[in-house]
Amino acid sequence: MGYKIVVVGATGNVGHEMLNILAEREFPVDEIAALASRRSMGTEVSFGERTLKCQDLEHFDFTGWDIALFAIGSDATKIYAPKAASQGCVVIDNSSLYRYDPDVPLVVPEVNAEAVDGYKKKMIIANPNCSTAQMVVALKPLHDRARIKRVVVSTYQSVSGSGKEAMDELWNQTKGMFVPGQEVAPKVYPKQIAFNVIPHIDVFLDDGSTKEEWKMVAETKKIMDKSIKVTATCVRVPVFVGHAESINIEFEDFLDDDEARDILREAPGIMVIDKREDGGYMTPVECVGDYATFISRIRQDSTIENGLNIWCVSDNLRKGAALNAVQIAETLGRRCLKKG
Ligand code: 2RA
């Protein structure tokens, strides 16, 4: 006895990955529906060996469906998530719309799986921002051992985080650099992304930070511990898939790098690739398609009493979005929606 699953936004980067991962992990699916906007109605998407034809989200009735994985923008989510919830279908939402709602659990199963138990309040569970998800997976085991006081993180975020149009812009802009007359002006991004880095993701806030940076602060506090101080600088880089992060951590208690490495090696969802030699670390192009959050460059920060530096890399479409959403569904099934 399995679940009736809906994937909303099935034609986008994350929606595609949700279908792939549901199939890869053999999630117990009795029935599955792929939904998209009216203009994408009829579009075929893969679910393992099967091909699904996208149905129209606007007229879909969620009654009798168990879980809906949402991978659409906040504006559309605002319309359809409450509709699905009111029809008895639990929504796992990848947009930022509900992440900061005190009545909606914000969940990374390796960190706060028990939070899914609170789904009944709104029948909605929120998926964190991609840059937050990989970071809290890395921080949680270290926090449990030596209590984190402060985190300083710089991110190197791939263009797939902005969607397919951004990936096309990077590709065409890069090609255009070498073919006279085929230059491609910035459109998705305010400046050239090819052979460049852009210290600006999402909108600017009054204090000079960006909303992407604010998300990492607010979400880390909600998922892990509101006492942790976080400051972030989020940067877009000319990489197609895979986010990387340089994370500086200050603890309450001393934690040496060898012990930290041992702790991380045993922690859920983490793969440590950390040798002090050429190539002894993970890079974004190598993480694509993997489930793991990779940790490298583990070393003491001797400029403060209890400091550590780490390098963290993960597939932003997987652990950063689709995989985490499917893991939430798995956790929800185990803890709250037992079948059969
Ligand atoms: C980005 N985190 O990388 C944002 C949304 N996926 O663009």
Provide an overview of this structure.
This protein has helices spanning 13-24, 74-86, 109-112, 130-146, 164-176, 211-223, 257-266, 284-287, 318-335; strands at 3-8, 29-36, 44-47, 50-53, 55-56, 67-70, 90-93, 124-126, 148-157, 229-236, 243-251, 270-272, 293-301, 307-314. The chain contains 9 helices and 14 strands. Strand 6, helix 2 and strand 7 (90-93) form a beta-alpha-beta unit. It has 2 domains: 3-127 and 321-336, 3-Layer(aba) Sandwich (Rossmann fold), CATH 3.40.50.720; 131-158 and 197-314, Dihydrodipicolinate Reductase, domain 2. Helix 4 packs across helix 9 (318-335). The mean pLDDT is 97. The protein has 340 residues and is of the alpha/beta class. Helix content is 31%, strand content 24%. The chain has a 6-stranded parallel sheet with strand order 5-2-1-6-7-8, with helices on both faces. The termini are close together. 3-amino-D-alanine (2RA) binds next to helix 4. Residues 129-131, 157, 161-162, 201, 212 line the site of 3-amino-D-alanine. Keywords: Amino-acid biosynthesis, Diaminopimelate biosynthesis, Lysine biosynthesis, Methionine biosynthesis, NADP, Oxidoreductase, Threonine biosynthesis. One of its GO terms (molecular function) is protein dimerization activity. This is Aspartate-semialdehyde dehydrogenase.
